[in-house]
UniProtKB/TrEMBL annotation:
This is 6-phospho-beta-glucosidase. NCBIfam families: PRK09593.1, PRK09852.1. Keywords: Glycosidase, Hydrolase. PROSITE patterns: GLYCOSYL_HYDROL_F1_1, GLYCOSYL_HYDROL_F1_2. Gene3D superfamilies: Glycosidases. It comes from Rossellomorea marisflavi. The keyword Hydrolase applies.
Length: 484
């Protein structure tokens, strides 16, 4: 990199989620959500896949979301640290069950609305724009029990009411909204992503595509509502992204990569282009599925497309049709991937591929020609304090610096990029594992996997590094030498 090209309006910041940071899981009138039922330990992954045996809390299990890092009570302290780093924005999510404890209550919970009103006011007072996700792996348990979560068409209306409630309350305060976090996670971790519980004998794929349709219609109705209520604000979709490389130049491998990417692009094709793509229609025909659509659904999707595309990027993926190659899969990643011999992996088996974020950004911009927003990117690692108690997380700086340099190149390529919010600027509970030792933050939180600790906050070496990056609008990256 020779010259920083980040625009002056670039939104530097960080991203957290209500269920991984807030805690206070039954305070302020909040109802129970799907993530509140996810324990840490061996059962967690099976639960996230939709194989949950019950919708009740168990006395012998530890649920990390219940306290998380207590952002619910400590947000002012944390925002002060974010402001010290120079954040221009903070991506947060609203907990549906804080606003409507059952998901379909006749009236919203005023105490929940007041909490977010105070949170957004504190951000604004510190010069930080709130970037708000309406549904970030968050479904009230009552809606799961009563309607089967997003299996049920009823959730479209409940979600629209929830979204309109937020838009009316925070008109003029929130300029950037997103409808669903990593909407494609529905296909990979159905209970975590959308509160889906499978019954014996159900066709899982058909269930998931029907649920996806309901979410896509709900997303379009949220776009419609925001454009009516607060036309100055913008609303986007959000994808768990990462380019899929063919393992070889064998055309079969190349086609496998295209098909794998389409599993995710399917959602954004509808949200950004306004219609189901031809490859999806072919898939439904060949499966002989009757995907239920109500009259007017296609018109709603066509008329109300998103303003921008948010995406997370942690790693690229690799695919092959060769059974022998397929035996060499990486460990620890939600998205199956063949081990790429040209790349290193993190402690959790995630491929480290800075060039991949530039490739992914170019592919998304070429495909949709809408502004992009990198709303998650980061390195989960075990941080070991030194003898002086300080955490010198040079490996995190190396990872982030390499990715930001590639984003700078993407901007040079012509990609329109609104901002960058690194994942977990403060240590939070891992969504996938429920652990605290898988840390992403510039700020250390004193808490372990069992929930022990003072919850005290302290700065890591990466804190001052990111502060300098923001102060110079990326120019500080020019003189860095990175290993990634």
């Amino acid at each position: 990199m020779t010259t920083t090209t980040f625009p002056k309006s670039f939104l530097w910041g960080g991203a957290i989620a209500a269920n991984q940071a807030e805690g206070g899981y039954r305070e302020g009138g909040k109802g129970l959500t799907n993530v509140d039922l996810l324990p840490r330990g061996e059962e967690r992954f099976s639960y996230m896949k939709g194989n949950i045996p019950h919708l009740e809390l168990q006395d012998d299990l530890y649920y990390p979301s219940h306290e998380a890092i207590d952002f619910y009570h400590r947000y002012k302290e944390d925002i002060k640290l974010f402001a010290e780093m120079g954040f221009k924005c903070l991506r947060v999510s609203v907990s549906w069950a804080r606003i409507f404890p059952n998901g379909n209550d006749a009236e919203p919970n005023e105490e929940g609305l007041t909490f977010y009103e105070n949170l957004f006011a504190e951000l604004k007072a510190n010069g930080i724009e709130p970037v708000v996700t309406i549904a970030h792996f968050d479904v009230p348990v009552h809606l799961i029990e009563t309607f089967g979560s997003w299996k049920g068409r009823e959730l479209v209306g409940f979600y629209e009411t929830y979204a309109r409630t937020l838009f009316n309350r925070f008109k003029g305060t929130v300029k950037y909204w997103m409808t669903f976090n990593e909407i494609n996670m529905l296909f990979h971790l159905p209970f975590l992503g959308a509160g889906i519980v499978f019954k014996e004998g159900e066709n899982r794929d058909q269930v998931l595509y029907q649920a996806a349709h309901h979410q896509l219609v709900a997303s379009a109705l949220a776009v419609k509502a925001l454009h009516e209520i607060d036309p100055e604000a913008q609303i986007g979709c959000m994808l768990a992204a990462g380019v899929t490389y063919p393992y070889s130049c064998n055309p079969e491998d190349v086609w496998a990569g295209i098909e794998r990417d389409r599993e995710s692009y399917f959602f954004i094709d509808v949200q950004s282009r306004g219609a189901y793509p031809g490859y999806a229609k072919r898939f439904f025909r060949e499966q002989e599925w009757d995907l239920h659509m109500e009259e007017g659904d296609e018109d709603i999707l066509k008329a109300h497309t998103v303003d921008y595309i948010g995406f997370s990027y942690y790693s690229s993926r690799t695919i092959s049709r060769d059974p022998e190659i397929l035996g060499k899969m990486t460990a620890g990643n939600v998205f199956p991937s063949v081990k790429n011999p040209h790349l290193r992996t993190s402690e959790w088996g995630w491929t480290i591929d800075p060039k991949g974020i530039r490739i992914t950004a170019n592919q998304l911009y070429d495909r949709y020609q809408k502004p992009l927003f990198v709303v998650e990117n980061g390195l989960g690692a075990i941080d070991e304090p030194g003898a002086d108690g300080e955490i010198n997380d040079a490996y995190r700086i190396d990872y982030l610096s390499a990715h930001l340099r590639e984003l700078n190149e993407a901007i040079k390529d012509g990609v329109q990029l609104l901002g960058y919010t690194c994942w977990g600027p403060i240590d939070i509970v891992s969504a996938s594992s429920g652990e605290m030792k898988k840390r992403y933050g510039y700020i250390h939180v004193d808490k372990d996997n069992e929930g022990n600790g003072t919850l005290n906050r302290s700065k890591k070496a990466s804190f001052d590094w990111y502060k300098q990056v923001i102060e110079t609008n990326g120019a500080a990256l020019e003189n860095e030498t990175v290993k990634s």
